[in-house]
Amino acid sequence: xxxxxxxxxxxxxxxxxxxxxxxxxxxxxxxxxxxxxxxxxxxxxxxxxxxxxxxxxxxxxxxxxxxxxxxxxxxxxxxxxxxxxxxxxxxxxxxxxxxxxxxxxxxxxxxxxxxxxxxxxxxxxxxxxxxxxxxxxxxxxxxxxxxxxxxxxxxxxxxxxxxxxxxxxxxxxxxxxxxxxxxxxxxxxxxxxxxxxxxxxxxxxxxxxxxxxxxxxxxxxxxxxxxxxxxxxxxxxxxxxxxxxxxxxxxxxxxxxxxxxxxxxxxxxxxxxxxxxxxxxxxxxxxxxxxxxxxxxxxxxxxxxxxxxxxxxxxxxxxxxxxxxxxxxxxxxxxxxxxxxxxxxxxxxxxxxxxxxxxxxxxxxxxxxxxxxxxxxxxxxxxxxxxxxxxxxxxxxxxxxxxxxxxxxxxxxx
Length: 414
Prior knowledge:
By secondary structure, the protein is mainly beta. Helices cover 6% and strands 37% of the residues. Strands 5, 6, 7, 8 and 9 form a five-stranded antiparallel sheet that branches. Strands 22, 23, 24, 25 and 26 form a five-stranded antiparallel sheet that branches.
């Protein structure tokens, strides 16, 4: 058992009214197995983006029993199902001095706490922060540990460590992976960084109170309103990532436990500014159509524009623009392009691309379209029309009954 931590004036028990909206430097941040995010400061925590501070030992009682909790050094959730560490799936690891605690469903795992070296050999004590990095975002399933400007990349499978020095990044007192992006928290600010290189792009630091908590006079402004329920495009890539585009923003649809949040399109597809006309996914690529141009991105963890793009829609698809909507059904090789009341089917296996067929549609103007397990959905304003298959759509002479799409799913308002 480690020696008891030394008491410091700032580590005494906080008043339950301690307010993170005053500006707080968090000790640790981690989601649980359900996606609820815990923010730790001293012996208190906050659950989620709103709500008052609570004593941490009310949720993780053994932290106090074993360690007379005054603070948490670092914490992260092991969400990846690594074949060599299946028992660690969805466990939360807490680090205090030279000890590590492993929790599952807010219950301390048998045999813990133990020395950090027993679970994470090569990782130092008295850490500043930690975060999981799955192999689709890092080279391997990894955990990044932070101490000062040093970053230790721990390979979960081989238990090997690579040490890096990121002097350009502020000293992180906590790190959070959220909607596949990585945030270093320092003071009451945060900086987004790349988990492999540590590179920072964009205007940082930013005040955490605008983005990661609900505070009076903060957020995206009191006048901020949810967008109207009208989509410009919608698609799901091969990895199951679903996106809806509206104006210059997009939202992730497959991460509901992280909440519904609107982000600028340039955040993930930096070469595309402003609204898009249509988006579809095929193979490992995502196709974004804007005006008379088409951008093709590799659907990796961080979308990368394929060299030579954008190209004209005519050069890539063999048709004239503009395009109102587009979709590709899973395991199919046909791009269904909608222009006005016409649907053009393009063979994506042909070089150059070839038009297979054309069909008239019963709907005058389509905003967005997608093909999923329920069928083909054509979005018009706040409604959508459902067809069983593209073939049924192609021969239909009348429209089915329009259905309202739930505003809560798309983060919009009627």
